[in-house]
Inverse folding.
C-alpha cells in the first residue's frame, strides 16, 4: 500500500503507555443502540428499507426454539495474546511507524466517507476518533484488554487499537503485508458508518427481541456489512489517491480468510458450529469484502436482505 509521505488524520489519540484501570474484536462493534425496521437514510431524505428483516427475525426465533442455543463454541474476530513489554529502541521505532501508518489509513477513510455518505445516503459523515493504547483501555463501552483485538465503541464514536495487534497478524495468523491491517482499520470504520446511519441501533434492538441463535445471525450480517464497507473504502480510496499496489487486495482476502468463524473454530480444535458464528465464515467475509471492492457502492452492502450471505 502506498502510504508514506501522505496526509495523516488529526483524529488519532495516542494513549500508549498510559495504562487503564481493569478487564472487554477485530470486527466486533461493542455495545450500540438499534430500530426495528432496518431503515437508513438515502438520497435527499428518502428511505431505504432492509426488506424482510422482520420475517427473518421471526424465522430465526422459531429456529432458536426448535434447535436450541447452538452452544459448542463461540466465534469471534482476531484476539491477541497480550502486549509486549520493555520495547527496544528498534521495536519502538517500528511501533511509531505503525502509528503513522494508522493515521494515514484513517485519513483515507475520512477522504472516502466524508463525500460518499451524503452522496449515497443523504447523511453527513462524522469522523470517528481512533485511540492507540497499550495493554488495556477504558472506553465508553467499558474496560477492554488488548486481547480482544481492535474494536469500535459507539459511545464516543471511537475505534480502539493496540499496535501489538499488527504483529499478531503475522506471528499468530500468518497474514503478511501492510494492506491487511489497513483492511482491519477500514472494517472498524465500517462499524462507525453503521452507527452514523443508525444501522447499529436497529440491529441491537432487533437482537434484544430474539434468542441467541437469531441474535448471532444478526451479528454476522452486521459484521459482513462492515467487511463490505471496508471493500468500498479500498475501491474509493484507490480512485482518489491510487493507494493500491500489486497483491494488496489478496492481503485483505488472506486476512478475511484467517478470521472466519469456521477457520478459528477449527484452529482451536473445536467442532464447527454455525449457530455460534458471530462474524461469518472465511468465505463469507472474503465475498462481502470483494463485493464492496468490486462495486465501490455502499448500497450493495445490504447484508440484511441478501438471499444468501
Amino acid at each position: 500500500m502506498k502510504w508514506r509521505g501522505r496526509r495523516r488524520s488529526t483524529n488519532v489519540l495516542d494513549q500508549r503507555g498510559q495504562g487503564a484501570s481493569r478487564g472487554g474484536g477485530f470486527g466486533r462493534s461493542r455495545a450500540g443502540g438499534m430500530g426495528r425496521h432496518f431503515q437508513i437514510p438515502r438520497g435527499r431524505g428518502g428511505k431505504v428499507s432492509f426488506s424482510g428483516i422482520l420475517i427473518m427475525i421471526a424465522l430465526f426465533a422459531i429456529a432458536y426454539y426448535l434447535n436450541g442455543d447452538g452452544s459448542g463454541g463461540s466465534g469471534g474476530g482476531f484476539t491477541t495474546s497480550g502486549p509486549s513489554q520493555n520495547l527496544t529502541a528498534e521495536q519502538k521505532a517500528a511501533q511509531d511507524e505503525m502509528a503513522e501508518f494508522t493515521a494515514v489509513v484513517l485519513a483515507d477513510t475520512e477522504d472516502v466517507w466524508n463525500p460518499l455518505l451524503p452522496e449515497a445516503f443523504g447523511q453527513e459523515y462524522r469522523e470517528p476518533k481512533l485511540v492507540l493504547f497499550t495493554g488495556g483501555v477504558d472506553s465508553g463501552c467499558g474496560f477492554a484488554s488488548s486481547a480482544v483485538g481492535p474494536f469500535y465503541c459507539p459511545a464516543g464514536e471511537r475505534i480502539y487499537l493496540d499496535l501489538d495487534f499488527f504483529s499478531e497478524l503475522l506471528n499468530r495468523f500468518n497474514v503478511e503485508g501492510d494492506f491487511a491491517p489497513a483492511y482491519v482499520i477500514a472494517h472498524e470504520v465500517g462499524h462507525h458508518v453503521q452507527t452514523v446511519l443508525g444501522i447499529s441501533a436497529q440491529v441491537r434492538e432487533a437482537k434484544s427481541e430474539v434468542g441467541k441463535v437469531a441474535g448471532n445471525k444478526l451479528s454476522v450480517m452486521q459484521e459482513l456489512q462492515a467487511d463490505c464497507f471496508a471493500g468500498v473504502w479500498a475501491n474509493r480510496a484507490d480512485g482518489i489517491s491510487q493507494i493500491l499496489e500489486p497483491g494488496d487486495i489478496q492481503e485483505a482476502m488472506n486476512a478475511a480468510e484467517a478470521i472466519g468463524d469456521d477457520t478459528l473454530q477449527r484452529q482451536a480444535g473445536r467442532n464447527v458450529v454455525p449457530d455460534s458464528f458471530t462474524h461469518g465464515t472465511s468465505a463469507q467475509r472474503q465475498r462481502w469484502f470483494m463485493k464492496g471492492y468490486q462495486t465501490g457502492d455502499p448500497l450493495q452492502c445490504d447484508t440484511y436482505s441478501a438471499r444468501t450471505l
Remarks:
- The mean pLDDT is 82.
